[in-house]
Structures are given as C-alpha cells and as structure tokens.
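[SOLVED] Predicted holo structure with zinc ion

Edit: marking solved, answer below. Original request kept for reference. I posted the sequence and ligand SMILES and asked for the 3D complex as structure tokens.
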Amino acid sequence: MVPQALATALAEAGRRMDARNWVPGSSGNLSARIDGERIAITRSGVHKGRLSEADIIAVDYAGQALAEGQKPSAETLLHCQLYRLFPPVGAVLHGHSVAATVLSQRGAITFSDYELVKAFGFASHELDVVLPVYPNDQDMARLAAFIEPLLERDPPIGYVIAGHGVYAWGTSVEHAYWRLEALEFLLQCELERRKLP
Ligand SMILES: [Zn+2]
C-alpha cells in the first residue's frame, strides 16, 4: 500500500536521524504524502534507526490506519495537519534531540544573526527568525486543535513542542531532512551560545 520508494526513503531518513542521536528509544516519527487521500507514516513503537519497509504504514488524512491491525505513531494527527494545511509539504520529520528538548523548556526560541537561516529562504542573516514553541500535551487531538490557527496565521519554519521535540517538513523526504538538519544545527548553536558567559 505504501510505494516502495517512499518506504525506502523514510527508513533511510530514520537511520540518518538515529546516527545524529535525534530519535532515542522509540521516539520520533517520519511520514510522507502518498497522494490526496493517503499518508505513509512510521508505525507505533518501533526504533526509527532500524525501520524496515513493513514499519511504514498507510493512513488517511484523519490519521486512521488503512489496513486492519496496524497502529500508526501516536503523533500521526500532527503530521496529517501539516499535509492538510500546506499542499506543498511532501514529508514531515519529527525527532527528540537534546537541543530541541532542553531549549524549548525555556520558552520561545529566536535565531538572530545566523547565516543558516538562509536555508529557510530568507535572503539575509540580518533578521530574527522565531521558531515557535507550543506546550506539550498527551491529547493529540487537543494539541492539533491548539496549533492549527497558529500555523494558519503565520506558517513557521518548523516548530518545537516544549520539552519534547522538533517538527520539520519539506517538499520531499530529502528536503525535509535538510530542513531538519538546519533546524537542529541552529538549535545546537543556540544551546551552546547560551552556555557562554
Ligand atoms: Zn514526539
């Protein structure tokens, strides 16, 4: 049900995220848009660094598995929301890095004077780029409903759930990985910068 190329790309992205220590335990989830009715996403409870193609399952835009007995990642609704709101989005990657987890516990994150913000299409480093931080919630429907108007009003470069982890997206799995890598670099820089006297 999931095209082989998408499953392979997601499994590979999971291995790369694991190599960077962005998906400890069975945390994180990865997805890609199949078409206007289906999304490919990692199933619940598997290690994202050791994904097989069978670990990538198809869900509808309401987050329901399309094959009986399959359980998608707990945060599937947040992925579905991004595909629904933003038609160019082709893949969504979510990880639990140390930098995203720790920094988001201190409130809003603003990147100032970083060359790498240009990875998100900005023409210059001479601006403040906000990475929104939303409060964590174990009720995904409630969290998605809270986030939705904020995403619609001012589409961000990504977002972080406080004390939890980062969401990044792009037009393809590879593009989403690049953007995640840029976000993680900026988060790591910011974490290091705040340690300086
Ligand atoms: Zn998570």
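OP edit: Residues 4-193 form a domain with the L-fuculose-1-phosphate Aldolase fold (CATH 3.40.225.10). Thanks to everyone who chimed in.
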